[in-house]
Amino acid sequence: MAQRVTLRKRQPYNTTSNRRRVVKTPGGKLVVHHIRKLASAPKCGDCGIALPGIPALRPRQYATLSKRQKTVNRAYGGSCCAPCVKQRITRAFLIEEATIVKRVLKGKATVGGKK
């Protein structure tokens, strides 16, 4: 007959937060180990890939981390990956250039219309 084990938590239901594994100790006893949920890595807000340089932890574990471990030293460090930040910068630069060109062309048109 199989050896019985006692649960360590009060929650008896087979839920995702209450997964358990029966482990045999060196003393020969069977004990229950409760298994934590797997953590997913934080994702880039634009493209959705896992952010490199930031550990994959459960939400509560980020509270114990220092600031330098939660971010990357860059603009949008903890929320966007480097290629997406580069794309944002180039897009903003090109939009700014386009508005300047429009302004110059509009100025030339008004000067040409008066003469």
In words, what does this structure look like?
With 115 residues, this protein is of the alpha+beta class. The chain has a two-stranded antiparallel ribbon. The protein is rod-shaped. The chain has helices spanning 67-70, 82-114, and strands spanning 20-24, 30-34. The mean pLDDT is 92. The chain contains 2 helices and 2 strands. Pfam families: Ribosomal_L34e (PF01199). Belongs to the eukaryotic ribosomal protein eL34 family.
- Report the uncertain regions: none
Strand order in the largest sheet: 1-2
Write down the overall geometry.
Answer: rod-shaped
Given helix and strand content, the structural type is: alpha+beta
Name the helicity range.
25-40%
Q: Mean of the pLDDT scores?
A: 92
The helix/strand order is EEHH
Keywords: Ribonucleoprotein, Ribosomal protein
GO molecular function, one term: structural constituent of ribosome
Family: Belongs to the eukaryotic ribosomal protein eL34 family.
InterPro entries: Ribosomal_eL34, Ribosomal_eL34_C_sf, Ribosomal_eL34_CS, Ribosomal_L34e_arc-type
